[in-house]
Structure formats: structure tokens, C-alpha cells
Specification:
The chain is 37% helix and 20% strand. The chain is α+β, with helices and mostly antiparallel strands. The protein has four domains: 84 residues, Arc Repressor Mutant, subunit A; 87 residues; 41 residues, no CATH class; 50 residues, no CATH class. A four-stranded antiparallel sheet has the order 6-7-8-9. The radius of gyration is 26 Å and the shape is elongated.
Length: 312
């Protein structure tokens, strides 16, 4: 569904609200959201998920699911007002107090299991995971916060000896107002990238060849179809047919070559055998001999590579 800019922003806010509610105190890295299932189906349009992924607020997992990133969790706190609630600093305070006890009187950092911090603070393990993963236990001031210990993300927390954060430090470091200028710049870059995506193929830079709209009254939506000169096409930003220079173009063995004689010429049709190959629309190739027609068909369906720039 194609939405106006204001409607797109409102739909993104709605997505954050639903994701944060569904997430609750669970860890962001293991909590998956399916756009085709409640509470998202019928409320969050497909293009919203694509935009949130481009912005780095969610990441796609598999073919149909998404999960919040650390950046997305921070923005979700702001948009749902959870960050500015009276409960939030209290919860953070309990976690920080538990961390401080481990480095009190020490000259070096402490390594503590995440599960232990959850037990000592009385807070959910998943919520503490999000707090640390989003750098919310640290700030850009001279005070330092807790981080994951080496390659033990989600298991071991490293608390520096000079750990001295207060809940107010975290709230002030995370508020949307302090990130306003950065978010504004990111938004402008995203809009410029959106405009470029709409006018050129993202894989080979081929220009748009046609744009059409199809009304689906039974689904209460209008889908925008965009085709590019290379053959790449999309429906509301989602790939319909792949670009021959892109990563989703099928391999040669995914086509079956069927050759027939037509008068003095041979005509070879490349027929897709796999799902992605069937999404490729190829014209038949002709030759004076069977071999010539099939060789032309093989070259036509073979994946393409960009020519290297003379200055590269």
C-alpha cells in the first residue's frame, strides 16, 4: 500500500508501539515479529517494515520475520513514552545498583553473568539484555558503563572498575531530544535514498521504464508496480522480478532450454524450473542452428556482472 509521508510516519509509530508492547521484557535478539500475524496484520503496511529495516530500526530474519535492533529499541522507548515514565529510572537504578556492588573497592573490572544480574536486581533478564545491548548502561560523558565481555554477548557482562552511572545519566543520554539533529540528518539521507531507489535499479542503476498502479478493492489497497529497463520490477518496494546483476538472479541450471525448429530458424525458450527462475521474463532466442539458438539463450539467462570502472 502506498502512503503519504505523514501517514507513513504514523504507521511507523504504530509499528513501534505494537512491537514494544509485544516485546515487553523479552530480549530483542530472540523476539521475532511476523507482519502477517496479529497484532501487525491489517495495521502495519509492508512498506513500513521495509523502511524501518533501511533505517536500521529492525532487521529481517528469514523470509517473513523481523526483530528490533538496539537502535530500534531505544527509539521505541521514546515513542512509547516508556523512557519518560516514573518506573523506568527506578528499574534502571536497581540494575545499576547491582552492577556497582560488583566493582565496589575493586581496581579492575568485574565479569558477571547476565542471569546473576537479573537475580540480584529483580529485573527481567531480557530487559537487562536490551539495556546493555543498546549501550543504555553507558553514556558519552566521562562516566563509563557496562558492556558485553568479549565474545560472550548475552551471557557475560563486563563492569568497569570506575563504573559510576546514575539513572538520570542514562535517561538524558537516550532522550529523543538529544538525538534530534542526528535523526533529522538520517531522515534526510533516507528520503534521498528512497527517491533514488524509485528512479533507478538498486543493483545496476538502470532507469525506470514504467510505473503502474493496481487497485485491489477486496484488500482495500492500491499496489504500485515499478519496472526498470534491466527487467527488475517491484510491487510496493518488494521484489517481483530480479535484476540480472542482483543477488537473486537464478543460476543457469535453474532454467530448462526447449528448442524447436521454426521454418529455417531454431527458436530456444528458457523455461524456469525454480520459483525464482519462473519470475524472470525472457524472450525466446533464435539461431540458424540448434546450437546457436541455445547458446544465445544461455547467454541471455546467465547472471550479469558490472563492468569495472576504468578508474577503479
Amino acid at each position: 500500500m502506498t502512503l503519504a509521508k505523514d501517514d507513513r510516519l504514523e504507521n511507523q509509530k504504530a509499528a513501534f508501539s505494537l512491537m514494544m508492547e509485544a516485546l515487553s521484557d523479552r530480549a530483542i535478539d530472540t523476539s521475532l515479529f511476523d507482519p502477517t500475524q496479529p497484532p501487525f496484520d491489517g495495521q502495519i503496511v509492508r512498506t513500513t517494515w521495509e523502511e524501518l529495516a533501511r533505517q536500521g530500526h529492525v532487521e529481517k530474519v528469514g523470509a517473513f520475520q523481523y526483530r528490533l535492533t538496539a537502535k530500534g529499541w531505544r527509539v521505541g522507548l521514546d515513542l512509547t513514552s516508556a523512557l519518560r515514565s516514573a518506573e523506568y529510572p527506578q528499574r534502571v537504578g536497581r540494575v545499576l545498583a547491582a552492577m556497582k556492588r560488583h566493582v565496589k573497592g575493586r581496581k579492575d573490572s568485574a565479569i558477571v553473568p547476565l542471569r546473576q544480574l537479573a537475580t540480584e536486581s529483580g529485573e527481567a533478564e531480557g530487559w537487562i539484555f536490551n539495556l546493555i545491548d543498546s549501550r543504555s548502561s553507558g553514556s558519552r560523558s566521562q562516566k563509563t558503563g557496562a558492556t558485553w565481555y568479549e565474545s560472550a554477548r548475552g551471557r557475560l557482562v563486563e563492569i568497569p572498575a570506575d563504573f559510576n552511572l546514575e539513572p538520570g545519566d542514562i535517561v538524558s543520554a537516550l532522550t529523543l531530544q538529544h538525538r534530534e539533529r542526528v535523526e533529522l540528518l538520517e531522515g534526510r539521507l533516507e528520503e534521498a535514498e528512497d527517491e533514488r531507489r524509485q528512479l533507478h535499479c538498486p543493483f545496476c542503476d538502470a532507469p525506470v521504464s514504467s510505473i503502474g498502479h493496481q487497485d485491489y478493492p477486496e484488500l482495500h489497497c492500491i499496489v504500485t508496480y515499478v519496472s526498470f529497463a534491466c527487467g527488475y520490477s517491484t510491487a510496493d518496494g518488494f521484489e517481483e522480478a530480479p535484476c540480472p546483476y542482483g543477488p537473486h538472479w537464478p543460476n543457469l541450471d535453474e532454467f530448462e532450454l526447449i528448442t524447436k525448429r521454426d521454418g529455417k530458424l531454431y527458436v530456444c525458450h528458457a523455461i524456469g524450473k525454480t520459483e525464482r527462475a519462473r519470475r524472470v521474463h525472457m524472450y525466446p532466442e533464435m539461431g540458424k542452428t540448434r546450437e546457436e539458438a541455445e547458446e544465445r539463450a544461455r547467454r541471455a539467462v546467465a547472471p550479469k556482472r558490472k563492468q569495472a570502472s576504468p578508474n577503479s
